[in-house]
Amino acid sequence: MLLNPNTIDIWLIDLTRLRPQRSRFWAVLNPEEQARALRFHFERDQTRYTICRGAMRLVLAEYLDRDPTKLVFSQNSYGKPLLADVELSFNLSHAGNYGLLGLSQFNTIGVDIEQERQLDDLASIAQHYFAPSERQAVLNTADQTAAFFRCWTRKEAYIKAHGMGLSLPLSSFAVSIAPQIDQALEWNRENTVDQWHVQPLAAPAGYAAALACPRSASPILVQQREWLGNLF
Q: Region 152-169: what's the mean pLDDT?
């Protein structure tokens, strides 16, 4: 399956819907991935990992026209997963009953999905990790929970796109919490806002999701779809 240079494909993975195919996903995992799945204490966590990781292999294999069991992964110096011998960027996130997989020909991409939930320490987390403008926006909003997770997913996607983990401080950049916005990145310490693109993504009810990637000279087309077991 071809991926155009300025197109980003986003696949939503419904873990509950795909649960009956668990054995199929298990079969494409390598021994290391299977061992990691078995280390989860709860069966539901084993199943979520198995489906997400297996689905990722199957989707990437369809794009690359390869055997999913033969895909080889590496990682950068900060631990971000990469394809070892292919110029196709991807990023996987999962929360609750959903996974989210992004694919792009950009040199890097970040996606994040989170399940919205009540947090007793929401204000403390915002105070500790968010930039001043984000703290003010979240804490002065009627629905603080939804605003918090809109902010969190955009920040996580941006960090994942950089591939530096938390060595990039969460307070070193700021995003908008507006529900719908074309460019959510408002400020960063490096003064390179014009080089990055951050946007919210459509998500199931009770979830928030976001995408981050380098800016392009041409418009970026984001295509969101649900993965049902095959691309076609």
A: 91
